Amino acid sequence: MLIAVLSGFLLALIAPAVCAVSREWAGWTLALLPAALFAWFASYLPGVMADGAQVITYPWFPALDIQLSFLIDGLSLMFALLISGIGTFILIYAGGYLKGHPDIARFYVVMLAFMASMLGVVLSDNLISLFVFWELTSITSYLLIGFDHEDMNARRSALQGLFVTAAGGLALMAGLVMLGTITGSYALSDVLASETVLSEHPWFTPLLLCVLAGCFTKSAQVPFHFWLPNAMAAPTPVSAFLHSATMVKAGVYLLARLSPAMGDSELWTLLLSLFGGMTMFLGAFMAITHTGAKKLLAYSTIMALGTLVMLIGIGTHYAMVAFATFLIAHSLYKGALFMIAGILDHETGTKDVSEMGGLARLMPITAIFTVVAALSLAAVPPLLGFVGKELMFEAVLGAPVLGGLLIVLAVGAGVGVMVAAGVIAIKPFFGERRETPKHPHEAPVSMLAGPVVLASLSLLFGLALFIPEQALVGPVVTSLGGAADKVHLSLWHGINVPLMLSGLSLVIALAIFAFWSRLQPSLAILREAGGRFGPEAGYFRIMEWLTRIASWQTRVLQNGTMGNYLITLVMTTVLITGYTLLSQHGSTLRVPVPALDSGFAWSIALLMLVSALFASITRSRLGAVASMGVMGFSVALIFILFSAPDLGITQILVETLTVILLVLVLFRLPGFIRLSSPLERGRDIVVAIFAGVLMTLLILAATDLQFFDPISAEQVARSAPDAHGRNIVNVILVDFRALDTLGEIFVLALAAVGVYSMINLRAEDQRS
Amino acid sequence: MNESNTLILRTAALFLMPLQLLFSVFLLLRGHDEPGGGFIAGLVASGAVVLFLFSYGVREARSLLRVDPRDLLAAGLLFGLASVFPALLVGDPLMTAQWWYLPMPGGGTLKLSTPLIFDIGVYLTVVGAILTMVFALSQAESDA
């Protein structure tokens, strides 16, 4: 299991090598991994159908109660199958779509890492590792949206997506920590099985709001929906993957996952139904105001996400069945339609569907499968989309709160997507043949494979409903706390209210579709008004303020005078540490009799004193540096005297290199001039004395107090048997406290990069 | 800092540098049992290169090193990270030290371990960091 989740990351490491061997076939080769994963996940299906959830655990940081554990049940398995299955076709498709792109290797690397992180999100059982994978999807999707990094627009959209989802991610982390604290376990399986009634806990409202903030931003719910359409700046394979099976579904997944634990609260039902319903309607409405194929599909994704969230909020048995069915249907047709939008863009050279027409004769296969997928989107029988839509209406009719509003919104949304489906399926392929920037012909096999298979599955699942019912929907409903044996999908329920609602929306949709081209100008006006006053404008306002506050605090805190920085740093330390020291330890200090028993030690101490004095009064910079060096070497001597050879050697080496670095800098400085007034120098002396006195007091206090037995004895004892080493200093560095050292070498590397960029950027500025 | 014209320093640097580098590897490898270790060894190694740089100039030092010090930095971090994972593969918690004993011809055993890999990472990071800074500073010097 561990290998299954991490294999994506591993393959990402060697993807450039695969590309180097064969650019032509890299997409097909790399797609073998998700295909194998799909088969492997599918092999879990019978077990899950029979016995329910399984938890597989690997220790990760047992000391912090962080495990890499995986929860396999109907819900996670369905997501894993969608991710790996659609991922397979996306990789194949990308091979055709990005053919000859110079950075295609980079694309595969990030794409595979993205897929692996998404698998991690849906399979993790531990809340912390779930969060880590969650953030990884944010980061990798940032890299994917900004793949075309020379395009200003792509960069901005990528950053917007990252800001929105990462801000939500922070809230989510707070929520997950609260969840873990309340239930006393960070394992999802324990949280779900916990006896604590979450909704009666005093922290429930903040907990709920934090989790919702994370999920709503990730899953593009109103008012955070704006990043998703902008993410269209990504290459089409990314959009197809992002929308159909990954990223935006992460939020939906987590909501569904937590619904058994939190769904009994009224606030949950209300918020999810309300925001989901609004998102559903707005997405459908925005979809018909756009003419760009990808934008149109992006808004219809928002509609679908809203529907899913609303269904989770409603939370009845019907809603759960509808949730699972609608999710599968949506992933299939949306993946197919996005890949088709990419084909159209690729073959005709334009993104605007109103500029296309009559392509069916030139691209017959594409046309057929577009129609199939679009019919599923429009929820026409006998496709799976129809079943999902019927169930959705059924669920809305049984909604516990806001029933009337939700029905209106649902019908409105149904109308919207039907029009959108009509636009995407009919405008480009039928009617009069129009000239496009490129002469289109049928797409290559690699690009057709995905749409063909996914659209066919929409049809197959619709006709043979027992397959999704038994294999996917049933187990999902079980894992959401429902009864699988009550799940029964069928195309024909008799003439009932949902069917009439479907019919009603179909009629309205046909009317709108007939006038779609003529309605465009007035719809565009509405869209612009929305752009000016909508939540996206709020986002830009916030970003503007962020920059303004950042530049204000930079001007105040980083004013460029080295002396001020030092005074601020030193005095802050003195005040805070000094206060703590005096209040906790008191002012009684025993000054131990110096243990220097030889004249040699005394002379070293004297040498240190003299060199310190000389360094502070000399007018020569080189002299100051040299006397500081003398001081450092004396300290090293002290270390050696008290038999700490490692420290001594380190001190000598560090001291040598410090002097070298200082000398290198020294030559770049102008000559020594006394600029400060006597008053300022007096202030500096006071600050220096404060710092010195504080350090002395600290050391005295440290030697005076001994709260615990020193751990050195234990570490010395453990060093040789546990860590196979006799040098305790090194054993501590590389074994006992290796995590700290790892952090430190990263800091060291950052410092080096900082120095390097500071010097080199300066040099570039001067040249220009 | 231009290269030094002192013949004595130049000659001495040429002889001392290989010895210093050898000594740094020695310190690195024995570090687990005797005074030494990646950090100290890295400091010694960078000292060696800096000595060479002072006597022959940045360009010579760069071409002697063959790789950009920034690459050493990255390689060091990768080594450090790589040492973290083997534990996971045998089912121990992340970062648990793994030891492998390889019998050598002649009766001795070669002790290999993830702390050693980690120490090599520390070594490379230290060398990379110091040389990145020193090269950048002295380059700016000779450009100005």
Automatic annotation (TrEMBL), chain A:
<feature type="domain" description="NADH:quinone oxidoreductase/Mrp antiporter transmembrane">
    <location>
        <begin position="124"/>
        <end position="407"/>
    </location>
</feature>
<keyword id="KW-0812">Transmembrane</keyword>
<feature type="transmembrane region" description="Helical">
    <location>
        <begin position="128"/>
        <end position="147"/>
    </location>
</feature>
<dbReference type="InterPro" id="IPR025383">
    <property type="entry name" value="MrpA_C/MbhD"/>
</dbReference>
<dbReference type="Pfam" id="PF00662">
    <property type="entry name" value="Proton_antipo_N"/>
</dbReference>
<dbReference type="GO" id="GO:0015297">
    <property type="term" value="F:antiporter activity"/>
</dbReference>
<dbReference type="InterPro" id="IPR050616">
    <property type="entry name" value="CPA3_Na-H_Antiporter_A"/>
</dbReference>
<dbReference type="InterPro" id="IPR046806">
    <property type="entry name" value="MrpA_C/MbhE"/>
</dbReference>
<feature type="transmembrane region" description="Helical">
    <location>
        <begin position="562"/>
        <end position="582"/>
    </location>
</feature>
<feature type="transmembrane region" description="Helical">
    <location>
        <begin position="365"/>
        <end position="384"/>
    </location>
</feature>
<feature type="domain" description="MrpA C-terminal/MbhD">
    <location>
        <begin position="606"/>
        <end position="670"/>
    </location>
</feature>
<dbReference type="GO" id="GO:0005886">
    <property type="term" value="C:plasma membrane"/>
</dbReference>
<feature type="domain" description="MrpA C-terminal/MbhE">
    <location>
        <begin position="680"/>
        <end position="759"/>
    </location>
</feature>
<keyword id="KW-0472">Membrane</keyword>
<feature type="domain" description="NADH-Ubiquinone oxidoreductase (complex I) chain 5 N-terminal">
    <location>
        <begin position="63"/>
        <end position="108"/>
    </location>
</feature>
<feature type="transmembrane region" description="Helical">
    <location>
        <begin position="78"/>
        <end position="98"/>
    </location>
</feature>
<feature type="transmembrane region" description="Helical">
    <location>
        <begin position="495"/>
        <end position="517"/>
    </location>
</feature>
<feature type="transmembrane region" description="Helical">
    <location>
        <begin position="296"/>
        <end position="314"/>
    </location>
</feature>
<feature type="transmembrane region" description="Helical">
    <location>
        <begin position="594"/>
        <end position="615"/>
    </location>
</feature>
<feature type="transmembrane region" description="Helical">
    <location>
        <begin position="447"/>
        <end position="467"/>
    </location>
</feature>
<feature type="transmembrane region" description="Helical">
    <location>
        <begin position="159"/>
        <end position="183"/>
    </location>
</feature>
<dbReference type="InterPro" id="IPR001516">
    <property type="entry name" value="Proton_antipo_N"/>
</dbReference>
From TrEMBL, chain B:
<dbReference type="InterPro" id="IPR007182">
    <property type="entry name" value="MnhB"/>
</dbReference>
<feature type="transmembrane region" description="Helical">
    <location>
        <begin position="77"/>
        <end position="100"/>
    </location>
</feature>
<dbReference type="InterPro" id="IPR050622">
    <property type="entry name" value="CPA3_antiporter_subunitB"/>
</dbReference>
<feature type="transmembrane region" description="Helical">
    <location>
        <begin position="7"/>
        <end position="29"/>
    </location>
</feature>
<feature type="domain" description="Na+/H+ antiporter MnhB subunit-related protein">
    <location>
        <begin position="8"/>
        <end position="132"/>
    </location>
</feature>
<keyword id="KW-1003">Cell membrane</keyword>
<comment type="similarity">
    <text>Belongs to the CPA3 antiporters (TC 2.A.63) subunit B family.</text>
</comment>
<keyword id="KW-0472">Membrane</keyword>
<protein>
    <submittedName>
        <fullName>Multisubunit sodium/proton antiporter MrpB subunit</fullName>
    </submittedName>
</protein>
<dbReference type="Pfam" id="PF04039">
    <property type="entry name" value="MnhB"/>
</dbReference>
<feature type="transmembrane region" description="Helical">
    <location>
        <begin position="35"/>
        <end position="56"/>
    </location>
</feature>
<keyword id="KW-0812">Transmembrane</keyword>
<keyword id="KW-1133">Transmembrane helix</keyword>
<feature type="transmembrane region" description="Helical">
    <location>
        <begin position="120"/>
        <end position="138"/>
    </location>
</feature>
<dbReference type="GO" id="GO:0005886">
    <property type="term" value="C:plasma membrane"/>
</dbReference>
